[in-house]
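Notes continue from the previous slide.

Worked example: a multi-chain complex. Inputs as given:
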Amino acid sequence: MQVLKTYYLSIGYANKIVASDIDISIDSGDLVALIGPNGAGKSTLFKTLSGHIKPVSGTIEINGENAENLTAKERAKMMSVVLTERPDDMFLTVCEIVASGRFPYLGMFGKLSGNDEKIVEESLEIIGIKHLSDRLFNTLSDGERQKVMIAKSIAQDTPIIFLDEPTAFLDYPSKIELFSILKRLATEQKKTIIFSSHDLELLLRYTDSLWVMGKQLPFIKGSCSELLENGKIQEYFNLQNIDNEYLTNRI
Amino acid sequence: MTIILLGIVLFLANLFVGSVKIPFKEILDVLLKANKDNPLNTIILNYRLPQAVTALFAGSALAVSGLLMQTLFRNPLADPSMLGISSGASLGVGIVILLTGVISGSAVSSLGWWSTIGVSLAAFAGAVVVLFLILAFSSRTKNMTTLIIIGLMIAYIASSVTDILKFFSMKEDIHAFVIWGMGSFSNVGTERMTMLSISVIIGLLASFFLSKNLNVLLLGETYAENLGLNIKGNTLTIILISGYLTAIVTAYCGPIAFVGLAVPHIARFIFKSSDHRLLLPMTMLIGMDLALLCNVIARLPGFDGNLPINAVTAFIGAPIVIAVITKGNKVAK
């Protein structure tokens, strides 16, 4: 069964449709990059898929069930997000943030069970930040903070993870490290991972599957090599003038 | 632990300090032995004890109310007056004190006991009206900034109406209104003390059910929503409880400034934590301590028990906040 599937999905706001006729279908363990120039509607698509805003028309199915019928709690156990905005509280520790991923599973007073604590610890280990556990979130580097938010998503234990521009503020080595973490999560943990990014060159090297959005252009999807060979990426990013060899050689 | 001990010491100090000197042994006598003939009974049981109890509950209620506002709006400058609730209370009181004077031709202050009850009711009514206005708006918007601005605007409207009332009022009434606006823990008698305590305890207990949601709000609204938190419902509940606590305290004691703003910061920096399961109870206790301390100082011999509490809260509280925060920053580095 497909983890996430959409039928004739149109996204946007009351008086402005951003993109329409989006048909997506992805499986567990898929790692998909969503690319497109600024203003193409990447964030809107993320917000719609993760349930923050309603689709203009069409349906979203999660594990074969219409997303509209999910309660907030059920949704929280299916999809987690990693955003560009970060918690800015002064005294939040890494461990507390990761533990907040357990929120949908907790009782009234928010006490972590032994099992919850185990999951938090495992999440920290999977991302390799167990040594940061007691640090204040505010004192970490951008790369470390990004990892903490991903660990939170893992603690949330959702089959689907959305990441909004996870590489945006990172230096080059951190970007590569992040890509390898995402890849590992997809293959080892069988997570379905969808992330947006502007790091085209790195994407071509690290991901197999792309969704491409453009202004006034239809939503398309395909493998990196496919989309490069048929010239779609060049078209959507206005790269027609750039030597094709340059891009294809990068793969 | 230290905070509780400090609270007990301050509570006793509240019974001890006043314009009439009473030896400590006598105070214990009054408290522990129910000796009806003791002439000091009146001073301690009818005057000092209710005042101390009022300070205790008002302090903790305002502190918790401030903590809720600061977390909800993730704004360190938020306090219980944020959403115009105390301005609503002021307007209510303004209407009663200022308008009855104009209509009946005699100052309300001359009505004696009834005026205290009337003022409390008016304050509560004013606060509740604003509270419901805010709740109505908050069920329509998810945007916290919008909500803050609406609250501010309501506060401005309320205070400008109050000013208009003042303009047409009698001098004695304006004086009474200004005195009310300075806040006091001493207008609550023995009977009303029980009512205040019960009302505050209900609000404080309710706030404990929020700690889980408050913690997840620290991540930001989008994360909180993704984790399954119902943003609108949660906002509504937080405003309701915070507004309720503010309304109660303002009704009995007038608008008490600063405690609600300062105490959450003191608690956060002492415990270096943002976990509301710890912060909520500690904010309550520190709020009690600060209010009791301010009340003792307001009552030091020489002030004749008449120093308005608002003159003391900031004067005493601000240096404490500065000390705690600068010390806390050093540790963080």
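Summary box: Chain B has a mean pLDDT of 84. DSSP finds 14 helices and no strands in chain B.
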